Amino acid sequence: MFESLIHTALSLGAAFLLGGLIGFERQWRQRLAGLRTNTLVAIGAATFVVFAGLFPGEGSPTRVAAQIVSGIGFLGAGIIFKEGLNVRGLNTAATLWCSAAIGAMCGAGFYPHAVVAAGFVIAVNLLLRPLVQMIERQPLSSTELESRYDISIVCHGEVEAHIRALLLRDLGSSLHIQALESVNIEDSNRVEVEASVRADDRQDRLLEQIVGRLSLEPLVTSAKWRFVTGEQNVG
């Protein structure tokens, strides 16, 4: 009994420390799941594995670990959300998943393995960030000609959502949307839907087709586009 308590204390203590280290990095960057969340996930996973070990022959810790992998999904789903055209929280959800795995290792008593795994998780979040930012700043090729366009659609307020949906549908297949917003026009029931898009080369004919179709929609009073710039990227 005493040895079992010692093992439990060591397992949960290791999960507390390693989960806390991962959570500290997340908290420092002000993510949705920070210090407490990652620590609790690691401790919870370790507790489930320790609990399975208290009943020799009744259940394998590996089976419990498999259930942890499934169960952690509800936490990950809760912090992944869509903000405009961007999806946020994927990295935080993946970090929670890793915290659960590290906690399971601690619960099974594989402390050195858990330390190594925690080190890799922290390294990914800290060291790969500058590399990702550097890659995102690079053009796709050294001779890529980037074209930018502004689109303006004026419509009645009741069809604003419909016009935005059509605009997203038509633009999303061939163009890169940079910004999309709606501005109420004072002293009227009209709204101006403005979009800024980027193309890898000149797409004037495509823009004319898209805006031309939107101009035929009911309650659309104005539809126009303009070419902003075409810049030669140097890699």
UniProtKB/TrEMBL annotation:
This is Protein MgtC. The keyword Transport does not apply. It is a multi-pass membrane protein. Residues 12-133 form the MgtC/SapB/SrpB/YhiD N-terminal domain. It comes from the Bacteria. Residues 149-225 form the MgtC-like C-terminal domain. It is found in: Cell inner membrane; Cell membrane. Virulence factor required for growth in low Mg(2+) medium and for intramacrophage survival. May be involved in regulating membrane potential by activating Na(+)/K(+)-ATPase. InterPro entries: MgtC-like_C, MgtC/SapB/SrpB/YhiD_fam, MgtC_SapB_SrpB_YhiD_N. It holds the Pfam family MgtC. Keywords: Cell inner membrane, Cell membrane, Membrane, Transmembrane, Transmembrane helix. The chain crosses the membrane at residues 6-25, 37-56, 62-81. GO terms for cellular component: plasma membrane.
